[in-house]
Each structure stands twice: as C-alpha cells, then as structure tokens.
From TrEMBL:
Pfam families, A to Z: Ig_3 (PF13927), VEGFR-1-like_Ig-like (PF21339)
Assembly, per entry: Forms a complex composed of PDGFRL, TNK2 and GRB2.
GO cellular component, one term: extracellular region
Keyword Flavoprotein in annotation: no
PROSITE patterns: IG_LIKE (PS50835)
Region (Disordered): 20-63
Positions with biased composition (Basic and acidic residues): 29-38
Protein name (database record): Platelet-derived growth factor receptor-like protein
Xref: SMART domains: IG (SM00409)
Compartments, record wording: Secreted
Leader peptide range in chain numbering: 1-21
Keywords of this entry: Disulfide bond, Glycoprotein, Immunoglobulin domain, Repeat, Secreted, Signal
Domain Ig-like per the UniProt entry, residue ranges: 62-143, 272-375
Length: 375
C-alpha cells in the first residue's frame, strides 16, 4: 500500500511541473555531481534607495546668483551676457537687483569724472546709464549686492553680475590710450601687462618688437593674450626689455597700437630703502648746509618725504626740494631714485641738533636721522 501511495504522489508532482513550469523549493542538502547549477531567475533583490544629497551641507559652496540685466529696445530686459559688442554712440543701461548695490566700471570713466555716466539706486534695483559711448569705454562693468551693518558694508559673493563690453568705433581697433608712448615695468616676481586691448571681439592681435623688428609669439608659456587685459608676461625676464607695439586686424583693416617701453626692475618690494647725508656735520655760525634724503625703489612706486628739524618750532626758514628720476644699474635693471633736499642758510645755534627724514610709500615708511653740531 505504501508503494502505491508513493507512486501516486510522484505522478502528481510531475504533473504540476508540466503545468506550472516551477520546481519545488530546493533542498539545503549538498548537490550531487552533475546536478543543474543554473541559478533561478526569480531571485529576490533588495531595492537600493538612492542617497539624497543634503542641500544644506556646510561643505557645499553657496550658489551665486546673477543679478544683472541689460535694457534692450522698447523697454525689454534680458540677462547680461558675459561679453557684449555694441556700436559706439549707443546708450547703455544696466540694472542690478537689490536695495544696496556696488558698481565697478572702466577706470577711464572714473579718472575724468565723466558726466556721461550715472548710477542711481532705486528701492529694488540700481541703474547704471552710459550715454554717447566711445571706444575708450570698452571694459568690464560689474555689480554686487552689499551686506551692511550700520555704516560698514561688505560684498555679498552670492549676488553678483558682470559683463565685458566692446564698444566698436569706426577707425578704432584698439582702445584709445591717453599717450603715444607708455612704460611697462617688468618685475621678476609678478606678471607684467602690455595693455593693448581691442574694441572688436573678433580682431586678431599680435605683439611685435620694434628693434630688432620681429613678431613676439604668445606661446602660452611665457606670454599669453587676454582680450580683457592685453599681452601678459607671466614670468618677466631682463631679456624681455625693449620697445614693443601691438598690431590688430579685423574686417580687412589693420591698425598699430601705441608703443610701450619695457623696463626690467629688480628691486625688493617693501618700505622705502632710505639714506640721509648732511653736507657737513660740523658747522660754524653763518655757514650754509644741505641735508639729502635718498630712496632707491621700484620705478612706478611714488615716495613722499616729511622732515623734522631743530629750528622747526621757531619757524626757521628752510628750502625743501623733492625730485625723482629713473636710473639703470647694470644688466638692464631700472630703479627709481627719489630725493628730498633741505637747505639751511646762515646757520645759528638753533639749527644744531637732529635732522630727521621720513620716507613713505604704499608699503610703509622708513625714518632716518643725522646730527649737525657747532664745532
């Protein structure tokens, strides 16, 4: 009876396989040699939940928001592009959203306090207007929101806007220069720029040496061309000295820029290197003396002099003269020598004592002194 029962169960099992195509649960016992080792396709897989980035993470930098728009024809506004090309003579209107807005624009417009430019702050935006534009107005216009606490304001880096505008003028491929000849100082520890900028975005610009006459390649290693700055000397050397100029070509026309004298200046940066020397430190009544204060420094860094002298409280009449000039110190190195000379005539006893000179530049000041005594 048991045999017939087992045979019946086996037949039912095979019938179910034929109908459903499914197999009974696998036995956990080890597989025999030759068994089917193909994994079933209906394996359950635990779904992966995608990780959501924390938008407020302290590690992620704040997103910047462009706040600048340009006014178009018929009162329409559009987001200001990174670069714009406008015909000279056109009016320019830019707006930046915010109740407190700071602006920057080409220094040329600030230098001459140009009445064509106006900036007005409204309740919700600031408005910059430039009338009767010229090629000389070519440059970067930018704005930023201001975060203010009382009278102290700082720049809001998350709310800024900028655009570089080429004002194209007939017959002017280069942004006009205030002079026909300019000096560019080459320092070994900083970049130097030959500022020949163009007014036409598509212009091809090359750099040339006057003597010996040849083109200077902008190879991307020593020299690069930046349309917003000019030709940039990345690591100036003494052999870069000389007179250079730029040449621009656009629309079948070409133009030569002003000339630039490149001077190499290997002078330490910092407070003035100052010395003082009196024509005589031992004097007699009735003598005349002069006291010389000298500074050797960077060619383009101005120096201011101040004096303290024995007869100052008694309003002793003295003569002070300040001068400066450029000198070459071998191997093509150029230095600025600045001097201040104090002259005192017909000496009296009140003129004896310390003569103190203070020289000051943008990086600090240096004070030196010498004594004058009656013998």
């Amino acid at each position: 009876m048991n045999v017939w029962l087992l045979l019946g169960l086996l037949l039912v099992h095979e019938a179910l396989e034929d109908v459903t195509g499914q197999h009974p649960p696998k036995s956990k016992s080890p597989k025999e040699p030759g068994e089917n080792r193909i994994k079933p396709t209906n394996k359950k897989v635990k779904p992966k939940i995608p990780k959501i980035k924390d938008r407020d993470s302290a590690d992620s930098p704040p997103k910047t928001q462009s706040i600048m728009v340009q006014m178009m024809e018929k009162g329409r506004f559009q987001k200001a592009a990174a670069t714009l090309s406008l015909m000279a003579g056109q009016a320019l209107e830019l707006r930046c959203k915010g109740s407190k807005i700071g602006w920057s624009y080409p220094a040329y417009l600030d230098t001459f306090k140009d009445s064509r430019l106006s900036v007005r702050q409204n309740e919700r935006y600031s408005q910059l207007t430039l009338l009767n534009s010229t090629a000389a107005d070519t440059g970067e216009f930018s704005c930023w929101g201001q975060l203010c606490t009382g009278y102290v304001c700082s720049k809001d880096e998350t709310k800024t806007g900028s655009t570089y505008i080429f004002f194209t003028e007939k017959g002017e491929l280069f942004v006009p220069s205030p002079s026909y000849f300019d000096i560019v100082y080459l320092y070994p520890d900083r970049q130097a720029v030959v500022p020949c900028r163009v007014t036409v975005l598509s212009a091809k610009v090359t750099l040339h040496r006057e003597f010996p006459a040849k083109e200077i390649p902008a190879n991307g290693t020593d020299i690069v061309y930046d349309m917003k700055r000019g030709f940039v000397y990345l690591q100036p050397r003494s052999d870069h000295q000389g007179v250079v100029y730029c040449k621009a070509e656009a629309g079948g026309k070409s133009q030569i820029s002003v000339k630039y004298q490149l001077l190499y200046a290997e002078v330490p940066s910092g407070p003035p290197s100052t010395t003082i020397l009196a024509s005589s430190n031992k004097v007699q009544s009735g003598d005349d003396i002069s006291v010389l204060c000298t500074v050797l420094g960077e060619p383009d860094v101005e120096v201011e002099f101040r004096w303290i002298y024995p007869g100052q409280k008694d309003e002793r009449p003295v003569t002070i003269q300040d001068t400066w000039r450029l000198i070459h110190r071998g191997l093509g190195h150029t230095t600025r020598i600045s001097q201040s000379v104090m002259a005192v005539e017909d000496l009296e006893t009140i003129d004896a004592g310390y003569y103190i000179c203070t020289a000051q530049n943008l990086r600090g000041q240096t004070t030196v002194a010498t004594t004058v005594e009656f013998s």
